Amino acid sequence: MTQHRIAVAARKGGVGKTTIACGVASVLAKQGRKVLVVDLDPQSNAAYALGVDPTAPGTAELLMGNQTNPLEATPGLYVLPGGPNLTNQTIQSLHPEDLADLVKVMPYDAVVLDCPPGNESLERLGLVAAQATLVVTNAHPFAIMGANRVMGILESYRNRERRGSQQWALVLSQVDERRALDKELPAQLVQRYSDIQHFTLHQDTNLSQAGAQQIPLMDYAPRSRSAEELTAIAQWIIK
Known about the structure:
Elements lengths: L3 E6 L7 H14 L4 E5 L5 H5 L9 H5 L7 E4 L2 E4 L8 H4 L5 H6 L6 E5 L5 H10 L2 E6 L3 H19 L7 E9 L4 H13 L4 E6 L2 H8 L4 H4 L4 H14 L1
């Protein structure tokens, strides 16, 4: 079985990272794949957005060597919740490859690793476990700086031939082309990062409402603009 492992990372919070992780997972599951979302965020937002118990045992327990039972959000889509136990010293001091060793043998066609903002130890677990990474930013200058730092880590790992993502794409999210900066920024980013794939995810109330209603996007609004744009991202992951 070929397993696709994709990390979704953004050093700054509030850029739509978890929304994208959950949306891509929903697309892959709707295409008939068995998908696992590994929530690496102590806030456990991915679990909440997909409608499973965010306080249930999950990623922290997996990393500590305990038995875990991923929660089914919808047919084919499973979640390991995050939670505050991810911040304990044992997990923070794990080797970056420990998560990779655990997920690669799990019986899923795709594993989506939702990395947290602002916690480099947990972020690195996700980046090393993945084969590819979606680096998410919006038009905020601090978000672009954060995305650049994530790509710097990825480039460093690849140059040193270390384990982890060998390719990555930049996702510009929350785009509203009525705003001048949002209209101009995609072309600027393409020019600045000309050697990687770029995607744009427009502002869409369906995407935010799916998370608020705790319903996977492809069950909530499968014909929405967001669903179409996330499907393009999912195709890049698979191909």
